[in-house]
Amino acid sequence: MISAVTRTLAILQFLAAQAAGVTLTEIVEATHVDKSMASRILATLESEEYVVRSRAGEYFIGLKFVSMALQQLEATGLLGLCPPVLQKIADETGELCQLAIVDGNTLHYVAKADGKDRIRVQPRLGTRAVLHATAVGKVWLASLPEEAALKLALNEGLQPLTENTITTVGKLRTELARVRRAGYAMNHAETFAGLNGVAVPIFGSDQSTVVGAIVVVAPAFRMPDGRARSFVPLLRKQAQCLRGLKCLAGNQELVAIDREISMAG
Fold first, then answer.
1. CB of 38 within 8 A of CB of 11?
2. Strand partners, 102
3. What letter would DSSP give residue 88?
């Protein structure tokens, strides 16, 4: 049975991803929450200022959520420390730089700095990193015990996002071994066609746990492998500046996953 909390979160997540207001009907169609239940949930959220409704009856995510997030970022130091670090990378590379942090059993993109090039890459702020298909995801998975990393990736599903996406356990094992040896990860148009990335880990205060990653993303024609690798020393140097941030402590306990790991592949 789906709880009211689960339905509420589904509605909030849908609203947070919208650039414009949406109607009750659109919310119901997207979340599959019963119309009467959705109406009651929205009324409660509106009364608490988590949701705003326009005169036309369209719903928007409320600024109360933004305020809460900013308070947390301010308390943990992200707002003061991260922008200068990311901007330095963006300025020196000319490309988009993003920060992803470990959040339970996944990573979220939480900060970015744009490069100066006119052809810019759209940032992914607020979204989850696809573990098997992104440079930041592979950096984190490579830091974990191999079987735990594979379970996490399999739990998400090794879905093919492009023709270059890794979709088998065998290939993922090989890739994670390469990342462990190199100390950085590459994304060869595995998430979006024509888009490459290179990422390095950010370590926690214990100097060994990976709690996040910094990635530079650019069109493949502008950042082939050689240029991407040339950014690694800069990324590593700047990652040192973020080491041990409280907000990057994360929850390193992995959720138990009963799914069998197929070694075929």
1. yes
2. 107
3. H
pLDDT of 79: 56
Task: Give the CATH number of domain 76-248; options: 3.30.450.20, 3.30.450.40, 3.30.1480.10, 1.20.58.1000.
Answer: 3.30.450.40
Per run of 10 residues, the mean pLDDT along the chain (length 265 residues) is 80 84 92 91 89 89 74 59 85 93 85 75 72 96 95 93 96 97 96 96 84 94 95 94 59 35 37
Residues near 217 by Cβ (< 8 Å), separated by ≥ 6? 95, 96, 97, 98, 121, 187, 195, 196, 197
Q: Which fold has domain 4-61?
A: Arc Repressor Mutant, subunit A (1.10.10)
Dist CA 215 CA 53 (whole Å): 37
Mapped onto helix, strand or coil, the DSSP state of residue 46 is helix
Domain boundaries, the chain: 4-61, 76-248
Q: How confident is the model at residue 122, as a pLDDT? A: 58
Q: How many CB atoms are closer than 10 A to CB 235? A: 21
Please give the structure tokens belonging to residue 54: 């326009």
Q: Quote the CA–CA distance of 210 and 122 in Å, as a whole number.
A: 26
